[in-house]
Amino acid sequence: MESILQKAIQSIQKSSIAFSKYITANDTGATGAHQAGFHIHKNAWQLFFKTPGKKGTNEDKFVTIKWQDDFETQSRFIYYGTGTRNEYRLTRFGKGFPYLQDDNIGDLLIIIKRTDDYYEAFVLQSDEEIDDFFAELNISSTDTNGILPRQFQQTSEDKLHDCFLAFLKSLKVDFPTTLELATNSRNCYNNAFGITQQIIKSNPDKEILNWLNTEFQLFKTIEIDRYSKRIQTPFKTVEELVETANTILNRRKSRAGKSLEHHLSEIFKTFQLDYSTQTITEDNKKPDFIFPNLEAYHNLKFDPEKLVVLASKTTCKDRWRQILNEADRVKTKHLFTLQQGISKNQLEEMYKYNVCLVVPKPYLTSFPQDFKEKILTLDSFVKIVQFKQQ
């Protein structure tokens, strides 16, 4: 029996246009907004309309949507352009619709156009499904909330592209290590766009997202170069095909898992923070970051109030519990994630167990209003560590 993920991938492959986004608190009404229904980014108007909405008017379109290859809704895609509003929403799903609940915050919504008025939609709920979706389509977790796939704009970023090609030419191995990939992509971006340490310090939340996106583009460039000839040659056996596909997918997931940690390290170095990474605490546990260092952690005379532990996970709806016993001396565990939105119930459980979320500042709007003051940005987390290290 095919999984929901497999059905979503197959549907996308058969369509001319598809869209993805994390379900947010704004969609479910958890922010206190009166208007429930999926907010669709303005750059995705062509998913439903032939022309973008015109300010000063409201426009709508009624469509049939089949959800999870199971049931259908008669839904309405509407552009609100009157008054102060300027937004697109997908509404009207009928009584008992299961995907606009608080627990759906942080799930991944996928909408695929099959005909002019018939669509398919899928909701991926587990971290593993979402990670596999990104890996299968070779898109970045930072590249959601838009049309799939979003192509790398070479024409407007010639300097960056030239740096990619120079790095590709210099490679003496099939694929660079995750650290080399992160470092070189970051250097390419910083040089191409004139990013200085002062700029990074002024907005670390913005720059880490730029680095993550640039690394993903560099990885795609290398991957295309390495596999373009191979995939044009017939595979001799099914086993050979499966082995090649698994190699590609495993490398994608491995890169994504380490990428965030590498770029966070660079942020901490830029701010001249003292820290240790991937060191061993109790029971052979390995927290991603300990501030100020492992020696201070194991020194029982060192004030535990000055110790900080940070885990980094691209998605954390299911995985946040993994960090609870990584450092017994530190009561509050900080967790940096690229997850865009988590339900109120899950957040309550996280904070009950003293897990404090840290997210890029642009992602704060994806979370329920009740928790926005509790969730830290990368900038505010750095300031807390700086204060403890004074």
UniProtKB/TrEMBL annotation:
**Pfam families per record:** EcoRII-C (PF09019), EcoRII-N (PF09217)
Instruction: Report domain Restriction endonuclease type II EcoRII N-terminal positions.
Output: 14-136
**Superkingdom:** Bacteria
Q: Name one GO biological process term.
A: DNA restriction-modification system
The UniProt keyword set, sorted, is:
Endonuclease, Hydrolase, Nuclease
- Report the residue ranges that make up the Restriction endonuclease type II EcoRII C-terminal domain in this protein: 219-382
Q: Does the keyword Nuclease apply?
A: yes
MF terms per GO, please? DNA binding; type II site-specific deoxyribonuclease activity
* InterPro entries in alphabetical order: DNA-bd_pseudobarrel_sf, EcoRII_C_sf, Rest_endonuc_II_EcoRII_N, Restrct_endonuc-II-like, Restrct_endonuc_II_EcoRII_C
Q: What is this protein called?
A: Restriction endonuclease
User: Which species is listed as the source?
Assistant: Panacibacter ginsenosidivorans
Instruction: Write the lineage as a comma-separated list.
Output: Bacteria, Pseudomonadati, Bacteroidota, Chitinophagia, Chitinophagales
